Amino acid sequence: MKTVRGVSFATLKAQVQTRSFEWDVVNLGDVEYAQAVLEGLLEKVDKQAAQTEQLPAHVVREYGITSYSLGTNLVYRKDKFPNGGPQSWADFWNVEQFPCKRCLYDRSFTCLALALLADGVSADQLYPMDIDRAFRKMSEIKPHIKVWWREGSQSQQLIRDGEVDMIAMWSARAVDLIDDKVPLELVWNGAEIYYANLLVPKGDPNAKAAWQFCNFVAQAKPQANFAMLLPYGPANPDARALMSEARLRQTPAWPENEKVSFKHDAAWMAPRLAQIRERWTQWLTT
Description:
Structural class: alpha/beta
C-alpha cells in the first residue's frame, strides 16, 4: 500500500480522463460523491469483491461504501473569550460582540450553508439553497476573515498558534488540539456533518483489490480503532460499541451532536457545484 498526496475532486477527474491512476481508493464527502456519480467518474461497487453482504446495508451505495462521518464546527480559543465565546454562526458573524481574528474554510458549499444559518435560516430549510442570499451574507463577514484555510493541518496551526481566535474547522482536528491542552472550545450547534465515502476511480485497473480493501475499512473493529485514534464518526454502528463513550461523544456520530447539526442535500448541490465553485472563486478574489 502506498499513501500519496491529498485528494481533490479535480485530481480524481484528471486521473479518470487521462487513465493515469495515482491511487486506487479515494475518500470523498457526500456532495462531491454525488458530483462524481453525475460526471461518471466512479466504478460501481463490486459487491462480490467488497463482500457487501458482510456490511450494514446503509453503508453500501451504488458507487461507494460509506466509511465515517466528519464535522465542520465553530471553534474558538477560550483564553480569548474567558467569559464565554460564540455559540452559533450568528455569533461568528457578530463582529461587535465578539471582536477577534476570524478564519473560515475555503470550501464554497460549506461556507454558504454557514452564512445562511448565520442569517437566520433553520437547518431544515437550507435547501433548496438561496445562493444569492448566502453570498450577500458572506460579503458581510469577508472583510473580517484573516485567513481562508485549505488544509486540515493549516487550520490546526492557525488556531493553535493564536494567529486566529475563532475558526470553522474539522471537529477531529479540534479534538486533537484539545487533547494536546490547547485551550479550545468545540461548538456542535450548527455544525456541518457529512459522510466520507470510499470510492474507486472509473477504469482503475486495481478495482477488485480496491474494493477488497474497502470491505476491511468498513468493518466494525478497524472503524473503532481508527476513531479511537482520530475522532471521526464510524458509519458501521457495531463499531460504536467497541469505543469508549467519552470518545464517541467527541465524534459526529454521538446522537446529541447529530441533533444540533445539519447535513447537505447532496442531490440538489451536485449538478450546481461546478457553477457555485466558479462563482465562489470570483467572489473570493475580488
